[in-house]
Write a structure and sequence with these properties.
Blueprint lengths: L2 E5 L2 E3 L5 E8 L8 E6 L6 E6 L5 E3 L7 E6 L4 E6 L8 E7 L10 E5 L2
Parallel strand pairs: 2-10
Antiparallel strand pairs: 1-3, 3-8, 4-5, 4-9, 5-6, 7-8, 9-10
Length: about 110
């Protein structure tokens, strides 16, 4: 059974940073294309960053240059380093597969506000 548990969200001022974690069980993140998604109130869930099994990263234009996706194979965890946060980054953040999605976790709330 696949389980994805996101953590690391919180309230941060504009310009601040957060590091999100996604602990996976039931799958090996090193063998999957994984992604970080977010869903803001009233909006559809969107993919903001992805990492292939080979280690290639891609980002949505809205976060390019500010967010970095990475993984720790030994910990079976995917990370999202978020810098220079903006109010429009406020959303619930989720991780999941990019090509094939698994049951969604509870997500972690990120709120960027002064």
């Amino acid at each position: 059974q696949v389980r994805l548990v996101e953590s690391g969200g919180g309230l941060v001022q504009p310009g601040g940073s957060l590091r999100l974690s996604c602990a996976a069980s039931g799958i090996s993140v090193s063998l999957r294309a994984m992604g970080w998604y977010r869903q803001a109130p009233g909006k559809q869930r969107e993919l903001v960053a992805s990492l292939t099994a080979g280690g290639s990263a891609n980002y949505a234009d809205s976060v390019k240059g500010r967010f970095t996706i990475s993984r720790d194979n030994a910990e079976n965890t995917v990370y999202l380093q978020m810098n220079s946060l903006k109010p429009e980054d406020t959303a619930v953040y989720y991780c999941n597969g990019k090509v094939y999605t698994y049951p969604w976790g509870q997500g972690t709330q990120v709120t960027v506000s002064s």
